[in-house]
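re: the backbone from monday

yeah here it is again, tokenized this time
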């Protein structure tokens, strides 16, 4: 039985800004560019979230929701420095660390002998050290696998910890909303609701074959996750080659205009993931993907070395659509990424990223 911890720093960018500028403490804080730009927020403090402000939201919209919002430009070098310090704490317990971003990571402590091998006590100690040594807070989830550990880390945020014991897995996932399943976005969740699937317990009523008729290649994954099963290992060496987001729609999009209207939400999700993963400097190309009503698909790519705008993706969409001009069931967009080693502006990822 694996012992996995997922550590997630609380409002990391905002917390670091407050650490180095205590005058910001208690104020609604957004990390992003000015409201008269096309900037979106990297994150928002808990004080700002009370007003509906959230990450990936345009700065202009955030200020409308919270006029007293304090906007601070991101200081990524500072965040990387603090992230390295957190990584050093994690390495005191295990070298099996899979970083997800500057503020999030998985740890496999199955073989750790400290604290009698108790993953719960190890997670508590990690959080204590982060607070006492770095003056930052972290939340943690402890579980037999990565899927459950990540869900658990969000259970008692901020500055909390939740444990899913092996004997409690079945009862824990039974009433878990389908939205908590990894990879289930708004469109897929709505499709599930239309099918009467609202919880993992509802999904458990169906076989892999039945789920395949509805969800295709994701059927086995959904079948496993709904039962709290996840065979994925903690990967210590891994480099992302691309970053894409996509949506499969309940009803085919009949026109180019309908496809255009699908872009804003996709682009918002794309920007959030791009900034969370710190991939901006590795961009080497942008791509749009369309899957048509008959399951045939096409992609259109262009070389680029900067963060594409929504208008850039719209231009690619129009070119891809023009190849057939028929109903579309899936729209995807994203970027191709170059090697971290080829970037002279970045520090090695092993020094920058951490996870539990």
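seq for it, each position gets an aa:
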């Amino acid at each position: 039985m694996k012992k996995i911890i997922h550590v997630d720093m609380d409002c990391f960018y905002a917390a670091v800004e407050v650490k180095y500028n205590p005058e910001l403490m208690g104020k609604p804080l957004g990390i992003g560019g000015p409201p008269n730009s096309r900037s979106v927020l990297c994150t928002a403090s808990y004080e700002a979230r009370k007003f509906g402000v959230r990450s990936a939201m345009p700065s202009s919209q955030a200020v409308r929701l919270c006029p007293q919002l304090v906007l601070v430009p991101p200081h990524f070098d500072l965040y990387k420095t603090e992230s390295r310090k957190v990584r050093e704490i994690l390495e005191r317990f295990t070298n099996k660390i899979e970083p997800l971003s500057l503020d999030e990571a998985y740890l496999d402590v199955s073989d750790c002998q400290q604290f009698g091998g108790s993953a719960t006590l190890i997670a508590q100690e990690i959080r204590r050290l982060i607070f006492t040594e770095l003056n930052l807070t972290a939340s943690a989830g402890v579980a037999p696998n990565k899927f459950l550990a990540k869900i658990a880390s969000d259970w008692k945020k901020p500055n909390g910890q939740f444990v899913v014991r092996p004997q409690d897995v079945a009862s824990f996932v039974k009433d878990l909303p389908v939205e908590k399943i990894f990879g289930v976005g708004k469109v897929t969740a709505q499709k599930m609701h239309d099918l009467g699937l609202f919880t993992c317990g509802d999904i458990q009523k169906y076989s892999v074959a039945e789920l395949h008729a509805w969800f295709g290649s994701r059927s086995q994954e959904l079948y496993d996750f709904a039962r709290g099963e996840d065979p994925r290992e903690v990967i210590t060496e891994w480099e992302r080659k691309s970053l894409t987001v996509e949506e499969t729609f309940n009803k085919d999009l009949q026109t180019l205009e309908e496809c255009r209207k699908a872009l804003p939400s996709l682009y918002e999700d794309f920007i959030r993931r791009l900034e969370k993963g710190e991939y901006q400097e590795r961009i080497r190309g942008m791509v749009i993907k369309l899957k048509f009503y008959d399951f045939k698909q096409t992609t259109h790519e262009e070389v680029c070395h900067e963060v594409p705008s929504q208008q850039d993706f719209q231009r690619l969409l129009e070119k891809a659509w023009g190849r057939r001009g028929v109903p579309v069931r899936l729209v995807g967009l994203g970027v191709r990424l170059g090697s971290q080693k080829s970037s002279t502006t970045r520090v090695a990822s092993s020094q920058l990223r951490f996870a539990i």
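The chain is about 35% helix and 20% strand. The radius of gyration is 21 Å.
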